[in-house]
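call fold(seq) -> tokens
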Amino acid sequence: MTGFDLVVRSRRTVTPEGERAAAVAVRGEKIVALYDHAAPLDAAEDIDLRDLALLPGLVDTHVHVNEPGRTHWEGFASATRAAAAGGVTTILDMPLNSLPPTVNVGAFEAKLRAAAGQCQVDVGFWGGAVPGNVKELAPLRERGVHGFKCFMSPSGVEEFPPLSVSEARRALVVIAGFGGVMVVHAEDPALLGEPSGPTYREFLDSRPDKAERSAVEQVVRLAGETGARVHILHVSSAACLDVLEEAQARGAAVTAETCPHYLTLAAEQVPDGETAYKCCPPIRSEANRDLLWDGLRRGVLSCVVSDHSPSPAELKAPDFAAAWGGIASLQLGLRAVWTEASRRGFGLADVVRWMSANPAALAEISGKGSIKPGNDADLVAFDPVATGPVDAALLHHRHPVTPYHGRTLKGAVLTTWLRGRPVDGEPCGRLLLGEQ
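ret:
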């Protein structure tokens, strides 16, 4: 009980067993023990948060950093600064929107060089599965990507085309062979259309629930045929839930996530012309939102991650038909989800499971996702009762465009520790490589 570098005490420490009063003892970069809240401990620094909550650092497995190549959209320095301010201590970068996209080892090396020395939180990487690169998947895995992202419909950038069903099957056979995971943007291109006009309603009608459900059905079938582990990204439509639940009940290795914007925003609330709300798949109705929360309650949806996809303001114009689709929320996800979760009777332990423990398990990132001995001392001091409006000018991502501007959210991130050190603007994050 002596010689600790840091002790953080809280009457609301969120552990894998739930909330408890505890003192978290840190030596070097690791949590070494949990003690009673008032235990006398010898430490270089001893912080008592009292009734403020102590959370594990969040793990956001769905972040579009866009560097190199489109760093004017977002970059590692700005994205990881925003992450730390939002209580996120680990992100996984998506393989598209950067140039080159991460679809071979050479492109991955370029990504690693771009990220080196810039990151304020830890960063891992997804590789990409695109037509013609099936032979690149095993080398990418060996080099350290955590899994593979594919699209079933056009991605929005021509250098990252979608897989056909037969191409997806070939990729999944290879991925199953080395025990990897495919994360899938699931919309059926045959059921998507072009918006008939510039309004949000016309955009929403162009990407119907049936397009999402059809693609999820295809992916679930392919998972069964190949034995591969698959994860459905950013589920926006509750029409997918029964398909997912049936697959999970059969024991299929199929998981799914949703995002803060699908849980907190609704189509009925989208103002005319406010293209900051545009994303693919789209934000749907209030009734649909309630069903997504029920999917989380039942465990059909296991992760809540940002799908942080910013762009320059000029690309979010002129209307919903033409604007870039992407929500920028990396800094705000915890507050947004907690605002709605607490109103619906969920606790901080639920939020931590969805936003830290389960994403870490999805990407097989060891030492992250929970406050327990042996894990990295990634910690967040969080005030769960504070409230305040979002001011886009105070956001740290490169372009402060967000649908949350002016919205009152609950909670405040007060301090973020990465491996036992408070994040203070210095780029002390590490690049996390997967199983090699």
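The chain is about 25% helix and 25% strand.
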